[in-house]
Specification:
There is one protein chain. This protein has 274 residues and is mainly α. It has 13 helices and no strands. The longest helix has 20 residues. The termini are far apart.
């Protein structure tokens, strides 16, 4: 390894784990792609996770570099899948739905080795997310429905993050399509099932309750909807303020409460009714 590459490796070691240094870490990692591909790719994937919500275009660039560097063998399949899923999310956040949809379908359909259950559920969720945002609700519902068949019933407790992500997508598809009644039973079961706490887990719990409130309101069950909105307010108030450098998994769900709900009340209207 040349003196320059050793300097980048040393610099990367020095800034690793320091908050607010994500771009600096990525810059050093890019220089190491030809010398230590595994370290460089891992660093770029981690950096992309921290920046996707704020700068998805840069995250997309870093993830493409990471995927080019990662070996395509069975031993590295899990790392590649994580990077591919992250790239799909970054593409969606960048508004590049067609490419995200294509890559997600390729991830589901053309793998040298089968995905494990956790990655399979996440791949279905991201594929449905892209289809939904392209307005292809029937396709999104079919994709989510196929994955839901893989979940044990009753739902496992605590609810795994990948299951919560999939159920959120199922709820979004039906709420935005106006077929709330098809999602209500599963959402009711999901919000009653203990889930992960803290970070993305707490956010997902709140989103599940928002979707459940919307389905309850659409069904005319305003007491249930009002109670859910009150719980959502408490959950949101309890969430920590995000640090600019903190990793954030972009959720497709925060767009939901500001949309037109096919005639159902908005959360503010539900709260006022309660």
């Amino acid at each position: 390894m040349s003196f320059r590459l050793r300097a980048h490796r040393r610099a990367l070691d020095l800034v690793a784990g320091r908050s607010g240094r994500v771009r600096e870490r990525a810059r050093h990692a890019e220089r190491l792609l030809g010398a230590d591909a595994a370290l460089a790719a891992r660093t770029l994937v981690q950096a992309a996770a921290e920046i996707t919500a704020r700068d998805p275009a840069t995250a997309t660039h870093w993830l493409r570099l990471a995927l080019e560097a990662l070996p395509d063998g069975e031993a590295d399949a899990a790392d590649r899948t994580e990077a591919e899923l992250a790239l799909c999310r970054a593409l969606i956040a960048s508004g590049r739905m067609d490419e995200a949809r294509t890559r997600a379908h390729e991830l589901l359909g053309r793998r040298p080795t089968p995905l494990d259950e956790r990655h399979l559920l996440r791949a279905h969720a991201v594929c449905a997310d892209a289809e939904r945002q392209l307005g292809r609700y029937a396709e999104a519902a079919a994709i989510v429905g196929a994955a839901l068949a893989l979940l044990p019933r009753p739902l496992p407790a605590p609810l795994p993050p990948e299951a919560a992500e999939l159920i959120i997508e199922y709820g979004l598809v039906h709420v935005l399509h106006g077929s709330h009644e098809q999602a209500r039973d599963l959402l009711v079961e999901a919000v009653r099932t203990p889930g992960a706490t803290g970070g993305a887990g707490a956010t997902d719990r709140t989103v599940l309750r928002v979707l459940n409130a919307l389905c309850a309101a659409h069904a005319g069950d305003l007491p249930e909807a009002s109670g859910e909105v009150a719980r959502c307010v408490r959950l949101v108030d309890a969430l920590p303020d995000p640090s600019p450098a903190a990793p954030r998994r972009p959720s497709p769900c925060w767009a939901a409460p500001n949309s037109t709900w096919s005639g159902s009340p908005t959360p503010s209207a539900i709260s006022a009714a309660g």
